[in-house]
Amino acid sequence: MSIANNLLKYKKELDASAVQLVAVSKFQDADAVLEAYNAGQRVFGENIVQELVEKQAVLPKDIEWHLIGHLQTNKVKYIAPFISVIESVDSMKLLQEINKQALKNKRIIDCLLQVYIADEDTKFGLGFDEVIELLRSDEFQEMKNVRIIGLMGIASNTDTEKQIRDEFEELKVLFDGVKLSYFRKEDSFKELSMGMSSDYKIAVEEGSTMVRIGSSIFGKRKTKND
Questions:
Q1: Mean pLDDT computed over 87-106
Q2: 182 CB-contact burial (10 Å; exposed 0-12 / middle 13-18 / buried 19+)
Q3: What is the residue-averaged pLDDT of the chain?
Q4: Kind and range of the H or E element at 213?
Q5: Which range (1-10, 173-182, 217-226) has the least confidence?
Q6: How many beta carbons lie within 10 A of that of residue 38, not counting itself?
Q7: Phi, psi for residue 87 in degrees, rounded to 5
Q8: Which DSSP string corresponds to 48-87?
């Protein structure tokens, strides 16, 4: 099936649940992104800053770019002028740098706090207690150029459905608690980004508002050596 057909299949399914599709275009060339764009997709997720900057320069300017991979503080300045959402905020230090670069660009940048929910050492993210600590901090209260619009989490890479479901469920409980305690009056805090190609159906059942799907739309990812 073509990229367009794959995309429309997911969009139809997710639109019925009012869930936003983030098409993950990492390692895909600009032509592949453009095919998805021409089929109606406007939200794309990238992991690597250099690749994102290169694509943003040549693709339509109404694309909403999400940074979904681990972000180093020294790379924030390259995406601050245009990024729509940074989904992978995993430290106070990173959030402070985003705030600093957003101020320089006279912008407010939307962010998701990435929460560590997987039973794996390779994943990034804040612990549940660290999320609360960050939101309670004076440093966060002073930030005027970032807006926390929700949480993001990546489940364990396992075939055990119960474990995946439990991890998503725990993140939803945290999301609801954070919403009630810190963002009760802010309609913008509404996004729960969880679920990828292999587990998005479970994520949607557990309350996800945003799923990140790449290979199932674009096919096998092109690596630099292909």
A1: 98
A2: middle
A3: 95
A4: strand 210-213
A5: 217-226
A6: 12
A7: -85, -10
A8: -HHHHHHHHHHS-TT-EEEE-S---GGGHHHHTTT-SEEE
